[in-house]
């Protein structure tokens, strides 16, 4: 999992970017306050920082300078400030890229991957940018965990496949029934679905009672995370 610290006081934008990057094995922790970000950087390790410039309490350029002084971590400036001087100063201070707002989240994703590949080119601890714990092959009707085939029944496979396709998002029980031919015909109640979920966890989780991947979202449904 690639760990990213974001310093962004626009909570709506931060939420959108966090959800988007999550599907690419990137875990984003957002900080609305610059000083909270600095404190976290002293306590935790991050692979990359996404930094806004217009922040409460401290200008983003000053924050960039503080980060570069104390931490060896790549920085992407994400800012609505269009002054070329800001861009030049940010890059001179040590930022690795400057992305003017507004932008498509897909461009941010590509830039993150590009910078991390370059930054970790000579490192033995290069984060895996695309590799995920679970992968599926619809043609072969296979689910694999860390490259190893997971033996599932047809009904279990349908449930896991649907949740993997919606990875990171909550899928309701009704939606699972609606998207499964086998469950519609063979399992017609929530209790039976719970049994199937439990069987899946027995096969994919290290501790089925405390699932890491197939999570229950109380009152809403299930979510697959990795």
Automatic annotation (TrEMBL):
Residues covered by the OmpR/PhoB-type domain: 124-226
Transmembrane segments annotated in the record for this chain: none
Any one cellular-component term (Gene Ontology): cytosol
Pfam families linked to this entry: Response_reg (PF00072), Trans_reg_C (PF00486)
Keywords: DNA-binding, Phosphoprotein, Transcription, Transcription regulation, Two-component regulatory system
Gene Ontology BP annotations: regulation of DNA-templated transcription
Residue numbers of 4-aspartylphosphate PTMs: 52
Gene Ontology MF terms in the entry: phosphorelay response regulator activity; transcription cis-regulatory region binding
Positions of the Response regulatory domain: 3-116
Annotation: DNA-binding region: 124-226
Entry protein name: DNA-binding response regulator
């Amino acid at each position: 999992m690639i760990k990213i610290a974001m310093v962004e006081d626009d909570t709506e934008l931060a939420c959108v970017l966090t959800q988007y990057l999550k599907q690419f094995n990137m875990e984003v922790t957002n900080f609305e306050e610059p000083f909270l970000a600095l404190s976290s950087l002293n306590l935790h390790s991050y692979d990359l920082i996404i930094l806004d410039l217009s922040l409460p309490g401290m200008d983003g350029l000053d924050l960039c300078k503080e980060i570069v002084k104390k931490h060896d971590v790549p920085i992407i400036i994400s800012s609505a400030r269009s002054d070329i001087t800001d861009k030049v100063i940010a890059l001179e201070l040590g930022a690795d890229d400057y992305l003017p707002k507004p932008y498509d989240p897909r461009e941010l994703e590509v830039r993150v991957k590009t910078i991390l590949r370059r930054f970790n080119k000579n490192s033995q601890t290069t984060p895996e940018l695309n590799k995920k714990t679970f992968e599926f092959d619809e043609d072969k009707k296979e689910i694999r965990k860390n490259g190893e085939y997971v033996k599932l029944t047809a009904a279990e496979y349908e449930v896991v496949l649907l949740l993997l396709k919606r990875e990171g998002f909550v899928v309701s029980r009704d939606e699972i029934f609606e998207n499964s031919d086998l469950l519609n015909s063979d399992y017609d109640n929530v209790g039976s679905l719970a049994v199937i979920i439990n069987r899946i966890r027995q096969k994919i989780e290290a501790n089925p009672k405390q699932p890491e991947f197939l999570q229950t979202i109380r009152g809403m449904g299930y979510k697959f995370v990795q």
